[in-house]
Specification:
The protein is an alpha+beta fold. It has a single domain, classed as 4-Layer Sandwich (Phosphatase 2c, domain 1), CATH 3.60.40. Helix content is 37%, strand content 22%. It has 10 helices and 12 strands. The strands form 3 sheets. A 5-stranded antiparallel β-sheet has the order 1-12-11-8-9. The protein has a 5-stranded antiparallel β-sheet with strand order 2-3-6-7-10, covered by helices on one side. A two-stranded antiparallel ribbon has the order 4-5. Strand 8 and strand 9 form a beta hairpin. Helix 1 packs across helix 2, helix 5 crosses helix 6 and helix 5 packs across helix 8. It is globular.
Length: 319
């Protein structure tokens, strides 16, 4: 399923999520694309009705189209989902996309800038799931497990990588998909046993909560209150619209479950645990800032190890 909301109707710079599964090849992809409005705020395209669209709006949609075509190609040919091959598609589509060069140039200015976070996966006959997370920027990919909860599969392309500090500081990105400068698509391979749930999300979902655990609580509390995947998506949409200050998009696929009822049942115990965890000692609006900060530090300390269990090492650590 997918969830997509615009903070300002008709002006959202997130592209609609990409959610595709090829039944014959038993391969699939979920992806989200967040146009970077700060560095891509200049007009880049005018719609037939006269409405202007920013470079960020165009960039996220160009990246989505490129990934869709890339996935169709690798599925048809049986190719490995190589990040360099994906980058060649992104470069090709950017060369042909509408863009308006600005006379104002600067280090932070970008042409058609967008983040990208995707999971490409393949089901194996022995109930194994093989795949890789692919990303550029600060959108994220996750595994969600009934025992361990939400576990991040990506590392933001920012100088700071601590999820709580990222909530507090919102530093600039060091790498985004764009048309006028070099960028890279990072990958992180994985192999999991079925059943499992895979999630991709833009920062409209996880960047406006009090602690990283709150995002998991949003997903699981809405799951327990839903009777179908359609209702679950609608409840998630309502929840994120109540707290976010940005566009928000999410792609999700649940694999290996008999039906929605079984999925909901498997996560029941985890939802009770994470709900209680998020409520424990939670400050009220009247509590001073130091008390709120101390509570955030404590909850993050207890949550961090499980959340980062599959987080890839930094490029510096790999070097």
């Amino acid at each position: 399923m997918s969830v997509w909301t615009e903070r300002v109707p008709g002006r959202g710079e997130d592209a609609e999520p990409l959610v595709a599964h090829h039944l014959v090849a038993q391969r699939g992809v979920i992806g989200v694309f967040d146009g970077s409005g700060g560095s891509g705020s200049s007009p880049a395209w005018q719609a037939p009705d006269g409405a202007q669209r920013t470079g960020a709006w165009v960039g996220s949609r160009v990246a989505r189209l490129a990934m869709d075509c890339w996935f169709q190609e690798v599925t048809a040919t049986g190719e490995t989902a190589d990040p360099d091959y994906l980058k060649s598609y992104l470069d090709f589509f950017h060369e042909r996309a509408p863009q308006r060069r600005s006379k104002i140039a600067g280090r932070m200015r970008r042409q058609l800038p967008t983040t990208l976070a995707a999971i490409e996966y393949r089901l194996q006959p022995d109930r194994r799931l093989e795949g890789r997370a692919l990303w550029a920027g600060d959108s994220r990919a996750y595994l969600m497990d009934p025992e361990s909860g939400l576990q991040v599969l990506t590392r933001d392309h920012t100088e700071e990588s601590d999820a709580l500090e990222l909530l507090r500081s919102d530093p600039p990105m060091t790498n985004v998909v764009c048309a006028d400068r070099d960028f890279f698509v990072e990958e992180h391979g994985f192999e999991f046993s079925l059943p499992c749930v895979l999630v991709t999300a833009t920062d409209g979902f996880f960047g406006y909560v009090h602690t990283p655990a709150d995002f998991e609580n949003t997903l699981l509390s809405t799951l327990q209150n839903a009777s179908s995947e359609t209702e679950w998506a609608d409840l998630i949409r309502r929840e994120v619209q109540a707290y976010t200050a940005d566009d928000a998009s999410l792609g999700l696929v649940a694999l290996g479950y008999k039906d929605f009822a079984q999925l909901r049942s498997r996560f029941g115990a985890r939802q009770e645990l994470i709900s209680g965890f998020c409520r424990k000692n939670r400050p009220t609006g009247a509590d001073p800032a130091p008390a709120v900060r101390a509570w955030q530090d404590g909850t993050w300390h207890d949550y961090r190890a499980g959340y980062e269990a599959y987080m890839p090492s930094s490029q510096e650590e790999q070097a």
